[in-house]
């Protein structure tokens, strides 16, 4: 990961965009969140040396960090973790602070998806919109086969964790567990892999406290969906490594 980003930083915007997209695809498929965190720590520890060869290295690294958060490769809390592993006044710590500022800025998501002028950001936003529409159509009585075909037509298998996340949130909001039938069919067809299922469930788990503000029984429902998914063999064994959020009384 360190070599991927270092190579990209010394090339044009197109290659930087491609590196961010590749990093997103590799997350969970090959790299765990811990791997990504450690990779960025290595990058930031050597940031001063990198700056000798690459102009504006600190700003570029901040963009890669911020983009990783927008792409759900890292959670905002991971920035705190990365910062805690660096010396307080080093160049790398300043880069982490810069990344936090980029994320906190107005319209940060849209801006960072297009930070290198690539078209992929728009493709991701378009995919999110199409995923929401196909799930709404299925939820209101659509056919599972048609929903699966729509997911296939997106042509973004590395982004199917978004389907999982949105399907679970919609199931919680609408109190409609038909979404589990759709995910089961996608899994049976190999349309959504175990890795993508795991990443989708991980994203829900990380944001569960926020979800519970809008959906009072979110933790209870997630616990049910998690048991269901584990019984069906959807998830990687590593999913059980972290603590499962407590269900409120």
From TrEMBL:
Localization: Cytoplasm
Protein family (similarity comment): Belongs to the PDCD4 family.
InterPro entries named among the record's database cross-references: ARM-type_fold (IPR016024), Initiation_fac_eIF4g_MI (IPR003891), PDCD4 (IPR039778)
Cited SUPFAM superfamilies: ARM repeat
Span of domain MI: 1-84, 126-245
Record key words, sorted: Cytoplasm, Nucleus, Repeat, Translation regulation
Keyword Translocase: no
Lineage of the organism: Eukaryota, Viridiplantae, Streptophyta, Embryophyta, Tracheophyta
Family annotation (Pfam families): MA3
GO CC terms, sorted: cytoplasm
Entry protein name: MI domain-containing protein
Classification via PROSITE patterns: MI
The organism of origin for this protein: Dipteronia sinensis
Gene Ontology biological-process entries: negative regulation of DNA-templated transcription; regulation of translation
